[in-house]
Design brief:
Layout lengths: L4 H10 L3 E5 L1 H4 L13 H4 L9 H6 L1 H12 L10 H11 L3 E6 L5 H5 L6 E3 L2 E8 L5 E3 H9 L14 E5 L8 H11 L4 E5 L11 H7 L3 E5 L12 E3 L3 H9 L3
Parallel strand pairs: 1-2, 1-7, 2-3, 7-8, 8-9
Antiparallel strand pairs: 4-5, 4-6
Helix pairs in contact: 1-11, 6-11, 9-10
The structure holds zinc ion.
Zinc ion binds next to loops.
């Protein structure tokens, strides 16, 4: 099913609570590569996926050194938000945004001007580091300063344990409180918009079902097919930097 932007705009206009779920496709126009797409990190370098495997990360100091260099060189440090991010700021300004759930770790929603208290980072954030042993969290900047100063695998300063970005890796469950907040927001909206996510990864993808079961209209805006297209009320295939601003135009 392919939806029509004007119809979706009407639904959003009539709604008082819109919950949004965003994925990598919202940030790729800002130069943040996705993982599995044609230019994805893991498509180009399958070995990079190992850095997201917690057991291999623990076991392999060499892998950790490469991971720290990747974090230091991550495009998020210099990326700027794009019109897709800005569309959600407009939605918030109109008073309709219930919550902005994101699978992205790049901080671009906050950089665009979305209120941090409305942004729910399902997969964590690159802007903090967390110790795998004691859980201590520090700003990523502190760790990267140590990398710049010559430490190639900076240990947790609280316990000496192994540290990594405060992001969800393979084999790690989502933070329960974060997931509960997301489920609550999905169940408490009139329109649920899933943008730039291929909806392949649970439990994030399952939020679409939570929203629909609670009576919300489901809108999918994504460049390629998703498993939820057949049950969605509208599917928008156009470029997100054009279609999302069009959805919120005139709010
Ligand atoms: Zn520690």
């Amino acid at each position: 099913m392919v939806g029509d932007v004007d119809t979706v705009r009407g639904w959003v206009q009539d709604a008082s609570r819109v919950t949004v779920l965003t994925g990598a496709g919202v940030s790729t126009p800002s130069g943040i590569p996705d993982f599995r797409g044609p230019n994805g990190l893991w498509t180009k370098d399958p070995s990079a996926a190992a850095m997201f495997d917690i057991d291999r990360y623990r076991a392999d100091p060499d892998l950790r050194r490469r991971a720290w260099l990747n974090r230091r060189d991550h495009p998020a440090w210099t990326a700027a938000p794009n019109p897709a991010h800005e569309a959600f700021v407009a939605l918030e300004t109109s008073g309709r945004l219930r919550a902005l759930l994101t699978q992205n770790i790049d901080g671009l929603h906050q950089a665009a001007g979305s209120s941090p208290e409305l942004v729910v980072e399902l997969h964590g954030t690159l802007f903090e580091a967390a110790c795998l042993d004691c859980g201590d969290r520090v700003p990523m900047r502190h760790m990267l300063d140590r990398v710049e100063a010559g430490e190639d695998d900076p240990a947790c300063s609280a316990c000496g344990g192994i540290s990594r970005s405060a992001t969800i890796a393979f084999g790690q469950a989502l933070d329960r409180a974060v997931l509960d907040t997301a489920i609550e927001a999905a169940a408490d909206c009139e329109v649920f918009v899933a943008a730039g996510t291929s909806l392949q990864v649970n439990p994030a993808a399952g939020l679409c079902r939570v929203a629909q079961q609670a009576g919300a209209r489901l809108v999918i805006a994504n460049g390629s097919m998703t498993p939820y297209d057949t049950v969605a009320d509208a599917v928008l295939r156009d470029d997100l930097t054009e279609v999302l601003p069009a959805v919120v135009r005139g709010l």
